[in-house]
Amino acid sequence: MQHTVPKVRHINNPKLETIKPGYKGNKLINNRFVNGDEYYAPDFSNVLRWKLSGNPQKEEKKGDNYSPPLIRNKDFIHAEEDMIVWLGHASFFVRVQGVTFLIDPILYDLPLIKRKVDLPCQPEDLKNIDFLLLSHAHRDHLDLKSIRAVCKNNPQLKALVPLCAGSLVRNASKHLPYQEAGWYQRYDLVPEHLEVYFVPASHWHRRGLFDMNKVLWGGFIIKTKEQTIYFAGDTGFNGHFDEIAEVFGPLDICIMPVGAYKPAFMMQRSHLNPHEAVRAYNQLRGGTFIPMHYGTFDLSDEPASEPVRLLEQIAAAGLMSGLQLPAIGEPLLLRNLV
Q1: Which end of the chain has fewer CB atoms at under 10 Å, N or C?
Q2: Domain named Metallo-beta-lactamase: which ranges (predicted)?
Q3: What is the DSSP letter of 213?
């Protein structure tokens, strides 16, 4: 029996600087991206197992009405101070040295899943945005309707995206300028006083029937002389946290996913639970810890308030420092963050 040898290659954006010494670019096996060196695609038989197995915390979850606190606020959009504002789920407004970033904006309900808590402002209020950052193409991070709304009100907008995400950007807007990057590459569209890098995450891609792992996934580093901000994207626990710390040093502000982690047999390789997120934050030698990816949409089996309760317990036990639990719409001023 003849075995076909898998086709292996490495790619990046040849026009961009790669800052990790000796890094060849993102590995593809048979034209599909991998985590580090290994190909990973979720076993969708686990979805059936999930539906049939039942949730041992079903009653607890049913009685848990937690949703993140909300401050209805649009003043941050026009303020001058540098800040981070959580917009719910994994969506953030970030202003750094006067440059504004919108990360993974989900401004509406998801298909078949309604938001549990509103945006702090109306989608059309989000103006004067310089850069749209998209960590990966899952529908709870890259939403075409949301991107179109942001583009409509921000003609100056530019997008910073992963390798092979350009066609999705074009589906959202025919005229939105974008730049693709691989892991450890520095985008060159941003002003000289800022550095923005695309960095590894341990995840996967799928939007349709035939595009498994055809688009890269990752996180972002936004760096100034004063502070380094890390947005982890969606990720499971893997060796990339140590690697990121080795390349970038201590990370002053870590925006970490802490939700959608149960059942573990289905979620563990895609998402972090709170204990794993804190472990990763400690590997990153993090300063401020800002959690995300919880409370806005019901995506998994854990009770809604569990991620916050666990983080507070971990912090109280002295196993982390710098925990911030902002309300949706609450500005965290960068000058006040470690």
Answers
A1: N
A2: 101-294
A3: T
Residue in the block written with tokens 């599909």: 32
- 198: domain CATH number is 3.60.15.10
Q: Is residue 201 part of a domain?
A: yes
Residue 150, SS3 per DSSP: helix
Classify residue 54: in a domain, yes or no.
Answer: no
* Exposed e or buried b per residue across 277-308, where buried means at least 16 C-beta atoms within 10 angstroms of its C-beta: bbbbbbbbebbbbbbbbbbbbebbbbbbbbbb
Element (H, E) at 132: strand 131-133
Domain coverage including residue 82? 8-42+66-336
Angle, vertex CA 275, rays to CA 269 and CA 277, nearest 5: 65
Q: Which percentage of the chain shows pLDDT scores above 70?
A: 99
Q: Is residue 50 part of a domain?
A: no
- Chain segment 221-243, per-residue pLDDT in tens: 999 999 999 999 999 999 999 99
